[in-house]
Amino acid sequence: MEAVPEPVNERIRQAQERVAPQLEQARRSAADLNQRVVTFIRQNPGTCLIGAVALGYLVGRIASRD
Amino acid sequence: MDGRQHHEREELMDTSERSGQSGENPRIGERVDQIGQDAQRLWEDTRAAAQDIGQTVDLRGRLDRNPYGTLAVAFGVGYLLGGGLFTSTTARVVRMGMRLAAVPLVKDELLHLAEQVLDGFLGDHEQDAEVEGPAGFAGHDGSTSL
What we know:
Helix content of chain B: over 70%
Number of strands of chain B: 0
Strand content of chain A: under 5%
Largest sheet of chain B: none
Low-confidence stretches of chain A: none
Structural class of chain B: mainly alpha
Order of helices and strands of chain A: HH
Number of helices of chain B: 5
Mean pLDDT of chain A: 88
Largest sheet of chain A: none
Radius of gyration of chain B: 43 Å
Oligomer: heterodimer
Distance between the termini of chain A: 66 Å
Number of strands of chain A: 0
Distance between the termini of chain B: 138 Å
Order of helices and strands of chain B: HHHHH
Low-confidence stretches of chain B: 135-146
Radius of gyration of chain A: 24 Å
Number of domains of chain A: 1
């Protein structure tokens, strides 16, 4: 007996249902991380700015050596 | 130097010798006071200029409104200070940025193309299912088999 092939859109729907909770969890984690980073930047503006300039300087120095 | 100035200098030296302390000279005191006032005025001017620059740039407000953008600008300033402007890395990044900037322009075309490909793919599978369907039923039923 040859089985009737399952429609592709049904497979896609099942895969979407399987992946959807994980995607939602990843989205929540990313949003939480973003909120924490933004809060840290707003609470320590000088540190973050100086750090960014220092990091850019280092990358610029490394890039100029090539 | 004329005679009057010479005379004043001699008087000054005599006064210093008599008092034994050069700080008691009123002229030197005036000068010290003036230098102090100038220094204070310079400090106040510098502070006012720094405040003006701070209000103009509004770094804190920018950081509150757009933290990532402000940090990216700071990173860029550091990159320029580090001498990374005219390098192959910069050229590569600029080329990549130009390609990414072109993505929104061709996004609609790409989506349309992807829809067409997906429709064609799904259509082929449905046709295959329809073709295989009766044969499957015939095999299952057994009524049409030889």
